[in-house]
UniProtKB/TrEMBL annotation:
Native organism: Cyprinus carpio (Common carp)
Residue span(s) of domain SAM: 222-286, 299-357, 382-413
Region called Disordered, residue ranges: 139-159
Role played: May regulate the disassembly of focal adhesions. Did not bind receptor-like tyrosine phosphatases type 2A.
PROSITE patterns named in the record: SAM_DOMAIN
Record's keyword terms, sorted: Coiled coil, Phosphoprotein, Repeat
Coiled-coil region(s): 57-91
Keyword Phosphoprotein: yes
Gene transcribed to yield this protein: LOC109072750
Name of this chain's protein: PPFIA binding protein 2a
Family: Belongs to the liprin family. Liprin-beta subfamily.
GO-annotated biological processes: neuromuscular junction development
Pfam families for this protein: CC_Liprin_beta, SAM_1, SAM_2
Length: 540
């Protein structure tokens, strides 16, 4: 409006000075008045629009404040859920650790139940009435001798049960199969139609199916029952029924191909088939490896020791024993649902420790010793639980439970050149902003591994082409083209090149007798082979 007033005054002056224009003063004034009204109207409209936009901006600011509040509350709930999830995972791992023990207890209870039922049937159905009375008398006499003047009601049920079992075992030792008891009792002849004559053969296992009869006979000459008994002993009892129909002798299995095993006795599980082939190859080569003494039950406890209890069910179902640990491949671990690159390295280092200790089942140390006298040769044999005890000793007890299920053990700490204190800090979930806490961990970690291992780790980290070890990297199977399938089919078991613990590292050159030098040589071998997993699988 001001601009309009100024322009109108200028025009008015110009009109007064120049009267020669064809337009009169009244016409110009009318035109300017119209322009003025139009401008006033536009200003009014713009003012209304500004007010409307101001209200929208205030509404948006209010909405933004509400959404910010909701975001903060959501983040708080997410953090709480993460804490709850971590707690639940710890509880889950704890429960998974208890499952194998409960299974063993269940098996023992079932075995005891079967033995009791067996003794009862043999005593009641086969023995005469006088012998049954003698069983009762013997049990009662044992109970009275143990009580020694104490009322039987005051004894614990466990003590009474143990006494009963011991008395039954004593009486069982006097029994002569198939149906005769102690020396002062005359033998009873089985008669058709008399005391269940078929009970003896049904309850007593054939004598040629025991281990003692197999030990002194070549496997190729084993009978069908001996082979079936051996299959049960190594954990492949589910294939006994079909094996009994197909196997004539041990030679049948020795000459069988993998296709025969899959076709005739339906061994479709690849690791079951591999387990059987490894055992048969040992019989063919007449070489008994020390690792063959470690069964699949021991392997489940070994997974507890190296900090990977979450894979116990898969290993147990696949019947992975000590011999199979030597010949595990990357694809075998992927079949067992072990996809973490860190867990692959954990199993690899643990197998190395087993080999150096000649597959001693008790080589891993589970309990803490003298914290002031630890050396790398001792740390390399620490179990996962022992590492958590070390964390508690260096004032990091609140982070120690985070190592459950991480696969961190002494062998991984010492032997893996890419495992540093930063990797351990990530596994412990120590926030990056807690620099003093991380520095404290680094100082104690370097003291734990020693100067030699620390120097080798640093040299490996400074090498060209080094890829840092992360906690989220995965291993994927190598993709094979169509032209590689024929070569893969012709590849024999001992020619596989993707063992998780390569064959050439099992026989290192002659070393000094001290454990420190021995593990130092192994560390060098691991350093040369540290990137092999990345060549086999693609890390993401």
């Amino acid at each position: 409006v001001v601009k309009y007033q100024d322009s109108w005054n200028i025009i008015r002056l110009e009109d007064c000075s120049s009267s020669g224009n064809g337009e009169s003063y009244q016409e110009q004034l009318s035109r300017l008045e119209g322009d003025k009204e139009s401008l006033v109207l536009q200003v009014s409209v713009l003012t209304d629009q500004v007010e409307v936009q101001g209200e929208k901006i205030r509404d948006l600011e209010n909405s933004l404040g509400e959404y910010q509040h909701k975001l903060n509350s959501t983040e708080d709930r997410l953090q709480q859920e993460l804490l709850n999830r971590s707690s639940l995972e710890s509880q889950k791992l704890g429960l998974m650790e208890e499952v194998p023990g409960l299974k063993l207890k269940q098996g023992n209870m079932e075995e005891k139940h079967i033995n009791r039922k067996y003794i009862y049937l043999l005593a009641v159905c086969v023995c005469p009435t006088g012998i049954t009375e003698k069983i009762k008398d013997t049990t009662n006499s044992d109970l009275s001798s143990v009580s020694s003047g104490v009322d039987s009601s005051q004894q614990s049920p466990v003590l009474q049960e143990n006494v009963k079992n011991s008395s039954i075992r004593k009486l069982w030792g006097k029994m002569k199969r198939p149906g005769v008891l102690s020396d002062d009792i005359e033998p009873i002849q089985f008669k058709r139609g008399g005391f269940r004559a078929t009970a003896g053969p049904r309850l007593i296992r054939a004598p040629d199916s025991g281990r003692s009869s197999r030990a002194h006979t070549s496997f190729s000459k084993w009978t069908t029952e001996q082979v079936c008994g051996w299959l049960e002993d190594i954990g492949l009892g589910q294939y006994v029924s079909l094996a009994r129909q197909w196997v004539d002798s041990g030679q049948t299995l020795l000459s069988a191909t993998p296709r025969d095993l899959e076709k005739e006795i339906c061994i479709k599980h690849p690791l079951h088939r591999k387990k059987l082939q490894l055992a048969l190859r040992a019989f063919s080569n007449k070489t008994m490896e020390k690792s063959s003494e470690l069964d699949h039950i021991w392997v489940t406890h070994w997974l507890d020791d190296i900090g990977l209890p979450q894979y116990k069910d898969q290993f147990y179902e696949s019947k992975v024993d000590g011999r199979m640990l030597q010949y595990l491949t990357v694809n075998d671990l992927l079949f067992l649902k072990v996809t973490s690159q860190l867990h692959h390295l954990s199993i690899k280092c643990a197998i190395h420790v087993l080999h150096v200790n000649k597959f001693n089942p008790n080589c891993l140390r589970r309990r803490p010793g003298d914290e002031n006298k630890t050396s790398p040769s001792e740390v390399v044999q620490w179990s996962n639980h022992r590492v958590m005890e070390w964390l508690r000793s260096v004032d990091l007890a609140e982070y120690a439970p985070n190592l459950r299920g991480s696969g961190v053990h002494g062998g991984l700490i010492i032997l893996e050149p890419r495992f540093h204190s930063e990797t351990l800090a990530m596994l412990l979930n120590i926030p990056p902003q807690k620099t003093l806490l991380r520095r404290h961990l680094t100082t104690n970690f370097n003291t734990l591994v020693g100067p030699q291992a620390q120097q080798e780790k640093q040299e490996f980290a400074n090498a060209s082409g080094h890829t840092p070890l992360t906690t989220t990297a995965k291993v994927r199977p190598k993709k094979l083209g169509f032209t590689h399938f024929r070569q893969l089919r012709k590849l024999r078991m001992d020619e596989s090149a993707d063992y998780i613990c390569p064959m050439d590292t099992w026989n290192p050159p002659a070393m000094s007798g001290t454990p420190k030098r021995r593990y130092g040589s192994f560390r060098g071998i691991l350093a040369r082979d540290s990137d092999r997993l990345e060549q086999v699988g693609n890390a993401i």
